[in-house]
Amino acid sequence: MGVPFVERFVAYLSEKKHIPVHKIAKIESNPGQSKHLETARTTLFDIDLDFVNLRSEEYTENSRIPTEVKFGTPLEDALRRDITINSLFYNVHTRAVEDLTEKGLDDLRSGVVRTPLPPLQTFRDDPLRVIRCVRFASRFGFEMTPELRDAAQDSSIQEALISKISRERIGEELDKMMKGVQPLRAVQLINELSLYHCIFNVPDNILAAASCPSTSPETSVTACTILENILSPGSSSTNQPLVPVHPTLLSHISRDPGTKARLFLAASLFPLYGITYKDQKQKDHYLVEAVIREGLKLGNKNYYLDAIPALYSAASELVNGLSLDQDRFKNPLERVSLGLLLRNPKLHKSHSGTHWTSSLLFSLVCELVRLGYPPNDGAAKECIERYNTFAKRIDELGLGNIADAKPLLDGNEVTNLVESKPGPWTKIVLDKVFEWQLEHPEGDKAACASWLKEECNSRRINVQALIESTSGSKRTQAGEGGTSKRAKRQTQCQGGV
Fold it and tell me: Which residue positions does the secretion signal occupy (predicted)?
């Protein structure tokens, strides 16, 4: 078995070869989730290695859980694998590849995804193999055999994929597709095989609380195709060139490779665009959040759970174009308006995987999807140019990194300057400090401190009123009375804030 074998393997490496190996993890079998084999795992030279025994299984006609799992021959084990190119053995003694199915090497050369046994039999053993076939076909650009395609669309297989396979296993496969070299091809295959609802599954109780039905799964292909066009213009996988987007909108993707996977997963979920649901506390959430959390069980892997609902929230703010209307910013405080927009938490939360450039990029994708695909050349060009003009103006004003910039004065410096104890009011003043530095890009800390002192002395910033209003708000939240939010705003306005 895997565990005793790897224990001896690790001991040999440590004692005889003095090679460090990570600790051994044991992954229990779980027949109910089509995980039939106990597996031992360790890491050697930064490579994750799984150790399992060769096996053979017997099934009853109406059950996908094997009645008997026993040690098998290499041929029996190879025939049980998901696809032929994954059934190749490497003999560590002869240093030769052994193709026991007599199909693996030919399929590798020809670019074919094929199951060693009849595909229905292979998929009934473990329906997750359908999704693995999609992943390998998209990863290598291989073609599936017609028999495999038919079996993948079999209703009993798709039903088992929803009801039998753990959502964590499906989420893990999808994560690898989104991080792979051809996420667009993966989404195309998912739609061609009618697998969309099997993979992007929404629990029935949440679906019943949805604000409206989802649109056609084909819009996921449209969104991913447009995104691919933007990220890789002129690529062979797309057929409709678009106007190049401003380099600023693509800048964060090269700095954070996880951004591309988040954008493609968000685009894959486009059939749920704009759909919300209420939780037990009657709080609204985007339906994409439920898919990521419950349907795919991705947790916060690659910031999916934080970032993708945020991308949809930002798109809802930007997709109508009002926030990018250039007339809105043509005033003496243009730099302030633009800087505050980029720092808006709905557009930018760097610690949660959301960057303002990716928010704008996804909003652009959403607009282009609404134009259809392939989009009307004139309408698409006008839409992209609007985003490009906005990005160009950000560059001209030197605001590219403003979303993560810190105020010139920190909280201690502000409280010392106005001779008051820190409290919730401090953030309000710090926000005013940041507005000043947006308006005065050449200003330094001394100039900012001088300005703040004058604002407070003249009571244009009424610190005492802020302290009272924020303290009252805190008491209200604690059930101790205090001023209302409306009264708080009136007090601030009367104080000049």
Answer: none
Confidence band, pLDDT 50/70/90 cuts, at residue 234: low
What radius of gyration, in Å, describes the C-alpha atoms of the chain? 29
Task: Please give the DSSP secondary-structure letter assigned to residue 284.
Answer: E
Please give the angle made by the CA atoms of 397, 320 and 436, to the nearest 5 degrees: 30
Q: pTM for this one?
A: 0.85
Q: Cα 411–413–418 angle (5° rounding)?
A: 100
Listed residue (391, 367, 394) closest to 381, CA to CA: 367
C-alpha 88, offset from chain centre: 33
Collapsing DSSP states into helix, strand and coil, what is residue 144?
A: strand
Region 204-216 average pLDDT: 92
- Per residue in 456-468, pLDDT (tens digit) is 999 999 988 998 8
Could you give the 3-state DSSP secondary structure of residue 331?
Answer: coil
Query: What is residue 163's three-state secondary structure?
Result: helix
- CB count within 10 Å of CB 49 equals 14
Give pLDDT tens digits for 328-364: 556 667 899 899 999 999 899 988 889 999 999 999 9
Asked if the bond preceding 74 is cis, omega within 30° of 0, the reply is no
Residues 6+ apart with CB under 8 A from 457: none
The pair of structure tokens assigned to 353 is 């995987």
